[in-house]
Amino acid sequence: MSQTCALLGAPIETGASQRGCLMGPASLRTAGLAEDLAALGWQVNDLGDVSIAPQEPQAHANPALHHLAETSAWIEVLTQAAYDAGQAGDLPIFMGGDHSLSAGTVPAMARRAQDQGRPLFVLWLDAHPDLHTLETSQSGNLHGTPVAYFTGQPGCEGYPPLQAAVDPRNVCMMGIRSVDGAERARITEIGLEVHDMRAIDETGVLVPLRAFLARVQAARAMLHVSFDVDFLDPAIAPAVGTTVPGGATFREAHLIMETLCDSGLVTSLDLVELNPFLDERGKTAKLLCDLTASLFGRRVLDRMTRSSF
Predict the structure, then answer these.
(1) Which residue of 43, 48, 119, 163 shows the fewest CB atoms closer than 10 Å?
(2) Burial class (CB in 10 A: 0-12, 13-18, 19+), 308
(3) Is residue 189 annotated as a catalytic residue, yes or no?
């Protein structure tokens, strides 16, 4: 029986402070994502890119917020498009675009899981917890709000009504190394599982990852992985507007993806914050394709040696 994968692009950059993320989906396609997955035996269906109409400005009590109307429109369109993609493939991949994309894709996958009578768990691979509400964001960059939104936190009024929330106790964050005060308080308050880079330095990636996967399996849950480029160390992945030193290494990232593949639990994937304008000859896009291939079944012995970038 053939395994199917739907690709859906969301060229969204209004949630970030730097322009360029709208080129992310095209960059992943150019780097050969579909071809890499097809070579692993997957039937790939590229659904193209989602788009939104021009929006009238949307006011909010927090004057720092920018592009609230556009981000809200993206969430609404993506929630439906991602849900449809979940019906079109066993393991849909959502290609961004900035991380506000996940405010649409995660609720869509929660609804998909709900349809099957199962909970949704989320593995959040990111330098940031993205746990601000519309009220607490000081930068006004709405890519810092999706986790607060999809876990149903108060203070997200101005976004579309949430169709299906994720229990915050079903979220595991790894690679965190940049947290604001309001986010730190909320992590404790709602009981998120967070493994920052200090913890990973002490235990390695496998101890927390295997423990989390055991919880996913015990709950008979579906698992969404949200992969932000800034989870990786900027030395190996420079194409991101929010670089934070001390990220995951090449080997750690591949180990995570191969372990996820071994588990057989992953049911959907975000690839976000790829900004090709900041890349070095496609280095980061190619790395994201390689990491995705590891999640989809490629092993070390399958990898060809590439020439230097």
Answers:
(1) 48
(2) exposed
(3) no
